[in-house]
Amino acid sequence: MERIDTIRKISDELTNELVVCNIGFPSRELHHLKDSSTHFYMLGSMGLASSIGLGIAMSTKRKVVIFDGDGSILMNLGSLVTIFNQNPDNLILIVLDNECYGSTGSQCSYASTVNLGRVAEAVGFKNNFFFDGNEKELKFKEVLKSCGPVFVHVKVKPGNANVPVIPLEALDIKDRFMDEIKKIETNIA
Amino acid sequence: MDGSQAVYNTLKQSEINFVVSLPCVNLDNIMKMVEADEDIIHVPVTREEEGFGICAGAFMGGKKPAILMQNSGLGNSVNALASLFELYKLPVLMIISHRGTEGEFMSAQIPMGNATPKVLDALQIPYFNPKTPDEALKLIPKAWKIAEKNGTPVGILLSIKFW
Q1: Any CB–CB contact under 8 A between B34 and chain A?
Q2: Which CATH number is A3-188 given?
Q3: For testing the chain A interface, which of B20, B76, B84 should be mutated: the one with the most A CBs within 10 Å?
Q4: What domains appear along chain B, each with residue ranges and CATH number?
Q5: Residue of B159, B13, B5, B1 whose CA lies nearest to B93
Q6: Contact list, B44 vs chain A (CB under 8 Å)
Q7: Is the model's pLDDT at B128 over the cut of 80?
C-alpha cells in the first residue's frame, strides 16, 4: 500500500481527533488529501512527532493521533519509554514504516532488520496493532476504540506522492491548531 | 532562602504547570519539589531534545512549560530549539544547571560550560544569570514574561556558585 493511501484510509476515519504529522512528505500528503485545523504539520525537528504528540495528549482531554515514520522514530526511541511510563490513554502513535528515509531519497533505514512493533512491545506497550500493507486489513476503527497508549505499526511502500509543499506558514499552522484546541476545551469546561 | 526554594517559588509565581526534567545533582531538590506538587505535571524524559518536543506539545495544549536540565543537554537540543521553537514561536522556561563554571571540580564539564552562552547567543535565545536566590526571585518571573510575550525559549543559567 502506498503511504498516501494509508494516510487517506486512516484520516477518513478521523473526526475531531488532534493530529500531529511528521516532517516532509507525510505532512504534504496529509495536507493534500485533507486540510484541517485539527492538523499540526511539522516543518522541522525531525524525530519529535511522538514527543510533541505526548505533550499535547498530556495537556488536553482530546484523542491525539500521531503520524510518525520509521526513520524518525529511530531518532527518538527513548520517546517510546517516556510514553509508556506516562501512559496517556488518549494517544495513538502510528509508525508508517517504509523501511527508508523517504523524504531524502529513500536511503534504507534499519527498520528493514529491526521490527519496530516488537520494540514497542518490549518497552511495554499493551495495545499494539500491525498492518502488513494490505488495504483491506487496515481497520482503523478498531484502533480508535482501543485505550491508549496505542502503537500502530503499518508497513507502506517506499516513495512519495507527487504533491506540492504546504502553502501555510509555521505560525498559521500553530495559531489555527491552538485555536482549535481552545475552542473545544472551553466547551468541555 | 536557598537557591532551590527560590527557583521553585518562581515557577509557582509564574504559574508554570508542566515541567519536563533531566537530572543534575544541583537540580535534585527542585525536581523533588516539582514531583511532590499536585498542580504541576512532571515528566522525566530520556533526553533533552525529546523534552523540548514534549514542552512544545504541552504549550499548544494550553500548559505553561518549563524544562529542568544540565547545560550539557543544550547541545543535543539545538535543532529542536531552532526548527521547532524559533520557527513556530513557542515559549519555554529553561532552568539550566550551568556546569563548567567557576568552582567546577570536573574538568570534563568545562568545554560545554564555555560553549553554553555562545550556543544560546547563536540561537538568539535570551538568558539571565542570577547569582543569588534573591536575584533568581526577580529574574525568573521576568524571564517567563519575556518567553510568553515573544514566543521564545528563555534560559536561566545557574552557575556552580549559585548553589
Answers
A1: no
A2: 3.40.50.970
A3: B84
A4: 3-162 (3.40.50.970)
A5: B13
A6: 82, 85
A7: yes
Of the pLDDT bands very low, low, confident and very high (cuts 50, 70, 90), residue B149 is: very high
Residue A150 main-chain phi, psi, to 5 deg: -110, 135
Say how many CB pairs under 8 Å bridge A and B. 116
pTM, two decimals, is 0.97
Q: Given its phi and psi angles, is residue A20 left (phi above 0), alpha (psi -120 to 50 degrees) or beta?
A: beta
Residue B87 contacts by C-beta under 8 Å, 6 or more apart in sequence? A43, A44, A170
Percentage of chain A lying above the pLDDT 90 cut = 89
Place of cell 530520556: B46
If you ran DSSP here, which 8-state letter would residue B162 be given? Answer: G
| Burial readout B25-64 (b: 16 or more C-beta within 10 A, e: otherwise) | ebbeebbebbeebeebbbbbbbbbbbbbbbbbbbbbbebb
Buried/exposed A46-81: b ≥16 CB within 10 Å, e otherwise: bbbbbbbbbbbbbbbebbbbbbbbbbbbbbbbbbbe
What end-to-end distance do the CA atoms of chain B give, in Å? 11
pLDDT per residue over A104-138, tens digit each?
Answer: 888 999 999 999 999 999 999 999 999 998 888 88
Grid coordinates of B106 = 570536573
**Ordered alpha helix ranges (H), chain A:** 3-11, 25-33, 49-57, 70-74, 78-86, 116-123, 140-145, 170-188
- E strands, A91-167, in order: 91-97, 100-101, 107-108, 127-131, 150-155
Q: How far, CA to CA in Å, does B133 sit from each of B4, B8, B161?
A: 8, 11, 11
